[in-house]
Amino acid sequence: SLQSLDFDHLFRMFFEPVTTPCGHTFCKECLERCLDHRPNCPLCKQSLREYLKAGRYSPTVLLQDIMLATFPTQLAERRELHQAEMAELSNLTKNIPIFVCTMSFPGIACPLHVFEPRYRLMIRRCQETGTRRFGMCIYENGKSFADYGCMLEIRQVELLADGRSLVDTVGWRRFRVLSRGHRDGYHTADIEYLEDRKVAGEELQELQCLHDSTYCLAQRFCEHGDLTSRHILMQHGPLPEKEEDIQALADGPTWCWWLISILPLDPSYQLNLFSCTSLRARLTQLQRILAALLQQPP
User: Fold this and answer.
1) Which SUPFAM superfamilies match (predicted)?
2) Is 2 within the bounds of a domain?
3) Residue 60: which domain range?
């Protein structure tokens, strides 16, 4: 409803005016935020499900022309205000939007079903700013969300007639939460990105050997695991190929994150592996886990 918007938005000049099939005109953003809560016209309550599913809002050209001719200064100020808001929302370290839901990992697909109004707004803003990125964290007791999370990149959004959406995302970078906040109902955070510690010389050679031997265990696990493991593989696809340079990515080899995402691990243990910036330590833990699982009877 219109009550979901603050008065500051309600009494601003029309910006990107659109007219619904039932003949009522609103700012594009105001209409979208109302439809986040209910797929009906905010004034006459007529169903706008098909209009909402199309996801296309054609501007009301006549009203735009009238405002441009009559209120050029005020319209320019309104446009500058909108651009400032978009610039603020585009920052990828300050006040980034946080989706509190599940564990996600760098380079790994994370499909989402978005239905809450606050997250509909969040996803739309990520698209409109062009960043197409937001943070994902799990809930943690005593906190609104965990201290570590993964930035996700939106690859595709499928809109449904009632405003829900199926969002195809993939993990981008790990981060650590520096401070927490809120914006229009969803969580936000100031963050810093994590990066694995680089090694060289003999230490790198040893790390390469550990990496290769752990990858061999992962292959054995995928080939000879129990029925549950094989079912998981059918859902998540095959084990990713090894990277040529194991230190090329800030978050380390993608196959490690794929393996962590499918292994039967408690989320708190996954988070512990996730926050670790030593590839050696992560591989050592994975080697122990795989060895234990491979020793279990089918």
Assistant:
1) PUA domain-like, RING/U-box
2) no
3) 7-84
